[in-house]
Amino acid sequence: MAKLLQLFPLLVALCLTLDGAALAARPISTFVVEGRIYCDTCRAGFETSASKYIEGAKVKLECRHFDSGAVEHTTEGVTDSTGTYHIEVEHNHEEEICEVVLVKSPMSGCTEVDRDRSRARVLVSGRSGLATDIRYANSLGFLKSQPLPECGLLLQQYALGVDK
Q1: Nearest of 67, 63, 124 to residue 91 by alpha carbon
Q2: Helix ranges restricted to H, 26-162
Q3: Which of 86, 63, 69 is nearest to 133 (CA)?
């Protein structure tokens, strides 16, 4: 009886370990794709300290089949007051290439799609090795029609186009 009592904590620990391993091996079936949309006020092609995040911008998550290129899944999202969107996606899309794509900006004077920052790939699969159900996409940007006056000085701080 004493030996059985000594083995009891070991058996409990073993059961908890196996249960935890089973949970970790179970693929996630619902994901949240998250990212931010900004207005490139300097037309720099990247985020700067002068960039403004856009509330109410529309994006879509588009998943295309890896082989055929056919669109298998589309979900739209809208940014909040911080320029952040959260798109909930059901099921694994491991046979598909998923991208968040810019759709529309409500910000006056900042509606031109930045061709180089118009889409971001995200992995929407539970078999990716990631422990969380949140998938982060790179920030996407619209271009302001005219750069702000302070952009010249701001971009000099980045030493763009300056050989040292």
Answers
A1: 124
A2: 151-157
A3: 86
Cβ–Cβ under 8 Å, residues 98 and 62: yes
List the chain domain ranges.
31-147
Tell me which H or E stretch contains 7. Answer: helix 2-25
Tell me the per-residue pLDDT of 32-42, one tens digit each, with 9 for 90 and over: 999 999 999 99
User: In 10 A of CB 99, how many CB atoms?
Assistant: 17
Give the H or E element holding residue 37: strand 30-40
Q: Which listed CATH number (2.60.40.420, 3.40.50.300, 2.60.40.10, 2.40.160.60) goes with 31-147?
A: 2.60.40.10
Place of tokens 């619209």: 142
pTM attached to this predicted model = 0.76
